[in-house]
Amino acid sequence: MKVAVIGGGAAGFFSAISAKQHHPEAEVSILEKSNKLLSKVKISGGGRCNVTNGCRNINQLAAAYPRGEMFLKKAFGTFNTRHTEEWFESRGVALTTQDDNCVFPVSQNSQSIIDCLMNECKKLGVQIEINKGVTQIQAQNEKIELTFNTDETIIYDKVIVATGGSPKRSGLEWLEKLGHNIVEPVPSLFTFNMPNEKVRDLMGIVVEKTKTNVQGTKLKSDGPLLITHWGMSGPSILKLSAFGARILSERDYIFNIQVNWVNEQNAEIVQAEIRSIVEEHGQKKLSNYRPFLLPDRLWQFLIEKSEFPIDQLWGNIGKKGVNKIVEVLTNDVYAVSGKTTFKEEFVTCGGVSLDDIDVKTMQSKVVKNVYFTGEVMDIDGITGGYNFQAAWTTGFIAGQLK
Ligand SMILES: Cc1cc2nc3c(=O)[nH]c(=O)nc-3n(C[C@H](O)[C@H](O)[C@H](O)COP(=O)(O)OP(=O)(O)OC[C@H]3O[C@@H](n4cnc5c(N)ncnc54)[C@H](O)[C@@H]3O)c2cc1C
Q1: Is the CB of 385 under 6 A from ligand 1?
Q2: What is the spatial distance between Cα 21 and Cα 266, in angstroms, rounded to a whole number?
Q3: Which domain holds residue 168?
Q4: Going by CA atoms, what residue is nearest to atom 10 of ligand 1?
Q5: Domain co-membership, 246 together with 383
Q6: pLDDT band for position 11 (50/70/90)?
Q7: The pTM is what?
Q8: pLDDT at 344
């Protein structure tokens, strides 16, 4: 059996290894269009490679995927985060789980993952060809013919497509021509630009517990928020960008976000806390007593934003003042205009429609003997090792070549 794996990224390598493990007799080749292999693994996680996530609950795990949740929930039954850890550790890559559940190699170096995948290919006899770009794929009875950038054509028994996310629809045209539905690609995992907001002066500040939402939508998120030179970032914002990838693209990245700086869902709790400060610390200036232990620079900024006089005493803010503070702490609005792709990790929302793929095998429902794995499919996750996990899971299943 002659098997081609198109694409030498995480999903391509994992599916090729799985194919050779499940079918030792098969001739398996990874065909990579560039002269680099596993290039995203190399730069991933800031060069450390966040290889998976420590989450063991399949429902919770699947919920980390704005696109592909239901599909992956089924696939995780076959290969999930536990299998990923066992897979790498049993091949000599020691892993460590951080407090935030992100899993990295103990070496803190993505090269450990690359070396492991390369060694495994070598051991099993997976062939690897670089500078071998596929330009066309055609079904020939039950066989698959690939055309290369050199105009050469080769016929295979089975083909696994692992070409990664394509930011432009045109990059997926060859798969569309084969009969697959393409879900329009748009970026996911980006930070928010706020060119007209003074909050940018606070760049570098991290607020550990926030809730954020996009005004006029159901999009909401929580977690740490980082103020940057351009606007806002951090897990809370990246999650919002992932779940809102399509809506925010339709709005051309112009919208308002509301920030709850104190992560208290209930404004009454915040109000009670503010009232007790008024009673107990009435003689102190607002600027000298921070509620909820907010970062000092942020608190000074919020007092100014609420237009309190610089020497305002807590005791004299009155009912209106209490309401104003509650509002700025729990419902602070910022205008977003534009986005910046997160330097640590970005992915594509959209790709080959999951309706066209059998989750049990990753085989195309449109063309027999064509399989899909990784980001080329309409699957993407939030940050935290979830995107590689999708590649390992779908790669393992595709490689079974069922
Ligand atoms: C900077 C950055 C950091 C990231 N960090 C993390 C992280 O720490 N953890 C995490 O889980 N996720 C991370 N991600 C996301 C993760 O890297 C991707 O989701 C994952 O690499 C997708 O794997 P893939 O194999 O599907 O696609 P890719 O890694 O994109 O690989 C696809 C390969 O196919 C090749 N190819 C494309 N078209 C053709 C063709 N026609 N013929 C032949 N070859 C072709 C490409 O050249 C490429 O080598 C990060 C992403 C970025 C950009």
Answers
A1: yes
A2: 54
A3: 2-187+348-399
A4: 385
A5: no
A6: very high
A7: 0.95
A8: 67
